[in-house]
């Protein structure tokens, strides 16, 4: 059910709110175009699209922007959305909007095939870091857990990880593990030492300034050891480091 919403920003007019499970992002963008809406379409907890007379303007999703951000937002088929009329800054419409939306549907189909895949690194083909979000995930490909267990959708990088995984499979750097070679779930449990190694690796990435990779590892460790104070302290330190870095970038 779509309902009126509270104003998102000063001098904005409330239009709609709802859930992407009921109304897709593409349908909302089509509605905004028909009604020539200028304002904002926000997916709560993920990102925001600026609308310029019905056309897509600037887009942000986590630390992504532009086409990558729009693709990430369209990839997810659930989440609360709010739509408001107003006057967003800027007057330039986004490029490759149609490509981003179509590519999001492609990646949804790819994810259906990849989510439950158990992957492992190929020893003969050492992994060469790319600087992308798939690097820390490759380190966790133990041949026992599915890719969906290793990818945190809340980080807003699912689409980048999917394409990177597909590339790695094509290049033979990683491979699928046949079902017959997987251990039963009870034997695949990760022990305390493995989590400690993960936390230490995250701390090392933090010291080197690779904040995105550090956050992925630390959050993954926290899901496997909820309430751990050491992990929480490191995540708070990372958040402070990110805030300080962002402040310096805006000077």
From TrEMBL:
Pfam families: DUF4388. PROSITE patterns: TPR. TPR repeats lie at residues 195-228. Residues 17-112 form the PatA-like N-terminal domain. Keywords: TPR repeat. The keyword Iron does not apply. It comes from the Bacteria. This is DUF4388 domain-containing protein. It comes from Nannocystis pusilla. The lineage of its organism: Bacteria, Pseudomonadati, Myxococcota, Polyangia, Nannocystales.
